[in-house]
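Sample A.
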Amino acid sequence: MNKTVVITGASGGIGRQTAIDFSGLGYNIVIGYNNSKNQALDLVSCLRKTNPNVIAVKADLAREHEARNLILSAAEQFTHIDVLVNNAAISTQKLFTDITKDEWDRTFDVNLGGVFVCTQETVKYMIKRKKGKIINISSIWGLTGAACEVHYSSSKAAIIGFTKALAKELGPSGIQVNCIAPGVIDTQMNKHLTEDSIRELIDATPLCRLGTPKDISKAILFLAGEDSDFITGQVISPNGGFLI
């Protein structure tokens, strides 16, 4: 029986690469997306050339019923969920004094609320089978903080606390919960940065380059595989040495 992975925010960047790599291993793939319908359907079409077991489900993770429906749809289609990758997130750059309460709430509703709801729904299926892998995507800014991204940094720091606490709670049920905190990755989320800003970030990185979605996908697949069976409650930060 093929394993099933649910990936939120899977239409582009890290999520897309992760879906491609899991598909290559023969997983059933559930692509969660919200606004990027065309990209999601394009990914489905691409993956189905070699893997028929791929579906896309639209879900605004800030809406509880949509987040739960994403997981329910996965379970109805494939009967079981082996891996959940909580990857979806939103980010804006603003001075702290300019962040509105609505912007603060929206950031937390998507970045943390979506993780809470998707995980809570998924755990119901994993507990029955006494196994499962939950992989939460935080950020280097959740470890060290970023100026003009207080709301984003705070939400990503909360994911780390969520991971550690839940790992302790679910360990006896055979479920592992881990976290990846990527460094600066060459994705659409960072396209707003100027060339000078990118150069400064590269210069501050001992490995002298930005990360790629593939760098993060490799870490996700490691945590999803058997080689990580004695790892839980941990934060892995592929960041090229930017933060040591």
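Sample B, a different protein:
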Amino acid sequence: MTDADAVIRRPEGPPRIPGAPAVRPKSAATLMIIRRDGPKPRVLMGKRHGGHSFMPDRWVFPGGRIDRADYRAPFATDLKPEVAAVFDAHLKPGKGRALALAAVRETFEEAGLLLAKAAPPRPAAGPWRAFVEQGALADLAALDVVARAITPPMVGKRFDTWFLLADAERLMSFERQPDCGELEEIAWVDFDEAQALPLPSVTRMMIKESVERTRDPSRPKPFLRFRAGAMRPAHL
């Protein structure tokens, strides 16, 4: 069984109600932050609360659903042209940037870390208020696209998730901001340590993908989706 098959055969989350139509997946983005200041590269991971209906007690990358505010949030640097081109090939104009902003915002909300550049604090409302009050604006130029995966239709809670990558040196600080942290705990773990954690199958696959990408940065970017009754892996 391949890693792609595992994503389908062992889907996490509540099952779809029998006879009900497939749930439409919600757009989301998650961020893999790689730290390279030790003997081995380490990735930021966090443990989800046991009360969650989706992947409880699993270790994941910070991330979450796109919010309408992400379409108009300010930023310090824009996406690199080659990254924007990947998004634009599959999404409506502006949605790729909004997904990237969602990943940066959720990383702050869940892990208390700012992938950002210093900026004068400014007033704001909604989900970006706490972020910009830190004197920070999102550093979108730090991001690359790793993969995209859509939760299988047999699951009752579905996401169309873009997996993004950034180097930890682009963080404003390694110190977690106070009053942040929806994840129960966070840790920097090397890839072998990460594989030993209780992970969702798609997260495990993305860690393996990251290892391969360190060896070959030109490697095609996976697109995992379920079509015509089976997993149909493709590339972005």
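Observation for Sample B: DSSP finds six helices and 14 strands in the chain.
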